[in-house]
Amino acid sequence: MKIIIVGAGELGRLLAATLCEGRHDVVIVDSSDEGLERLKDKLDVMTVEGSCASVATLKRAGVADADALLAVSGDEAANILSCQIASRLGVKRTICRLYSSDCFSEEDGVTPEAFGVWRVFSPPEECVAKILSVLESKIVLEKIRFSNPDALMTVFEVTPSSLLAGTRVKDIPGPEMINSIRFAAIVRDRQFLIPHGDTIFIPGDKVYVAGHRERVSEFIRWISPDDSQLSRILIAGATDTGKALAERLCPTGCELRFIEKDQRKGERLLDELPAGIMVINGDPTDEEVLDEAGIDGCDAFISAAEDDEDNILCCIMAKRLGAKKVVTLTYKPEYIKIVPAMDTIDCGFSSTLVSVNVILRMLEAGTMRIDAILQRFHAHLTEFKIHRDSPVCGKPLSQCELPPSAVFALVFRDGEVLSPSGDSSLAPGDTVVAIVTPDSAQELEPLLLKKGLQRR
Amino acid sequence: MNSRIVAHVVSTLVGILGLTMLSAIPVSLMMGDRLRSSGMFLICAGIPISIGMTLALLTKPRPGAPQPGMREGFAIVVFSWAAACVFGSLPFILEGKMLWYDALYETVSGFTTTGSSVIDRSLRLSDGSTLPAGVESLSYGLLFWRSMTHWLGGMGIVVLSIAILPFLGFGGQLMFNAESTGVKSQSDQITPRIASYAKILWGAYAVITAAEIVLLLFGGMPLFDAVCHSFGTVSTGGFSTKEASVSAFHSLYIDWVFIVFMFLGACNFILHFRLLSVGLNAYLKDEEFKAFLLLSLISAAFASFMIYASSLTLTTGETLKAGFLDAATHGAFQAVSLLSCTGFCTADYNLWPSAVGFLLVLLMFIGGCSGSTAGGLKVARVILLLKHSLSEMRRCIFPRSIPDIRLNGGRIDPSVIDKLLAFFFLFVGTFAVFTLLLSALCEMDILTAATASIANLSNVGPGLGKVGAIYTYGWMNPAAKILLSFEMLLGRLELYTVIVIFLPSFWRK
Question: Predicted ipTM?
């Protein structure tokens, strides 16, 4: 599949690297050649320098036979224009990055389709959705979605007071609940374990559980029934993401407080948001400022400022000063890999990584493979479509020679979500979600034929 | 300062003023005034028309002259008002034979929609005679002109000019802001051009006035009185054609029509216009309107409750035992009249319990809504001051928090709050200084001096004590009358516009 990426920023580069790894043909277009040169040295991609919104540039990038165009530059208007040109030149799937959701309006008939845009996404909105999903429950650290909208993987932490602490997997009561979900992985002391029946949950474990959306939610409710409503949430940084988060949290009636260094940005935030939000003007890495904002006992602290280092630092401070749950946002995807190393930060999201996952999921919705990049340990979640000739087809899984570190978390069959166990066997046309580490990838690939691999 | 353009605009306005003065002639003729007095209006109108037109032609801006700026805007508004007051007093001097300072006071009171009068039975005219029946001895033409000054001044003579004169389109925004009242919010501007905005305001104003005329006619009021009183109500002025003011008509229906229209006159006229497009929601979604309505209801209820079952003296001199309906009508009338800065009276509230008297004085300070014809601090300013105080209290606990003061959901810029605090200080300061000057220049008790000062600053009209409902300002000496004339003008143009003219830096480059 040939994919054109417009914009070689942080997001564009990570997308290029990810898609390249998935053996797609990637062409990357940007108006300045600085980033492009380095990219060309690093990745097997084609680079084109020129205006992103010009027909000539896109033609040079080979738009005529491209399957998809991802407009992810920092300029909203240019992104829309690139998509429009590409769609006129015959590209079916054009994905456009926006900063806000008010560019288009369904009611007024100003739809993305009218501009030749197939799908839109805005990184702040996607981050907000991620953050909101972990605010729902105290123990949930992350929620991951798949091409099948009914499927869900949730990461939660085993707390000392949890029902699960000290319990073996097979001792969990309620077979109907346990059989419909799958414990896919446990991260313990920064090590990745594959749980089996005799594995004992110990406090501090971060558990990946996958299954049908409702079954997983039921399970989370069962182990953490005393989830009270959020009453006070602190957000550091009056950024687009902070603002989008506040817009979603406002109607829930919880008390929102912002901490923002820049007085002007704080005032602009107040201008744009409805009444009832307090903005504290100060440095979120300053203890006095955090104290004044009421950090002690707040239900959640979310650092969404522009500076990655500040975000990580103030989260560590917030946790020490008594915030119940701290969530950090970073821009650079590299930083998210060090967040799990810091026990004080509960959840961390990289807006770039979140965006890459969203785009991969969008591309997949049709026929391709999906890669979600796991943030807690070095692994991918990959969806494979089982081919008729695959050696694992038709045999119970326990008899297949699978690499020891490979886990099948979910199976989608005819739109249904199944939890695979040792006895289940795979049928042609099934989609398997596997946790793939760099070691197991080499061994898995011959067993499962990725559809994306079938080069034309 | 581009004085040529200022002179041009001001003299054009004087000319227009002269033209409006002509409207008194047909009224005068129809109502059967003596021909001499109708003819006198021709002279009175002729002077401003000829002077205005000549000067306007002489000062016609040269092509390529620089656009008027901030200073010119302020100067045009202040000098237009000054000129209107001077030329508008001509009928009182020439036709009414009043002394110049009496005539000036009456005219300023008219244009600023104060509605306090110097005309009573004991007023000395220039030929030494007095008026045997007070206001009712004036000719119909003069009475009409007296009410007309209210109507012209209510929405603003400069706004009127912006609406009807296309050439004022330049810098119109500046002049509009200098003349209109209260706190402006962004959503108030509903047309891109200030001229069409001014047309809308005057349109709403004229429609409401016409509605009141019709309703008063239903109540059996003669057409002439209905027109004059409607001019005085919607503009929240308060000049009556009767000695006994509104209670001369002896009708509860008429009293309530007045209460409703005084209230409407003190609302933001843009809300009245929005009624057409948005419906009643226009009012219900407006914070200032809701506060104003609440304030009116509470103060009306309080006043009615305090006078219930007591003996009531009407401005006609009759006394009656206040039953439920009378107490409610007269309590509400006085409260709305003083809150809306109109100043019509039906009962002598000097005799009421002192708590009601004090409440009425407080209401005078507050006044009506932004963008209305009323005076005072304006409800929006009071709301914002209150919110600012609360916000500062909260900042004692959260010293780093950014103030978030809102009106109708929109955040108010801190610079607006700063200006507001300064305005509040100037307002209270002006009130205090004029109280002091007034009692120094003219022998009067402190209650009279203080309430006269606030009644003129807020463009209300009657105060307490010797300027109460059944008194006029006729007994004051010339110095006090001139002082109060200036104070009314200060209040109408909301202090800043007038005061900047006196700053040395205003005149320097």
Answer: 0.77
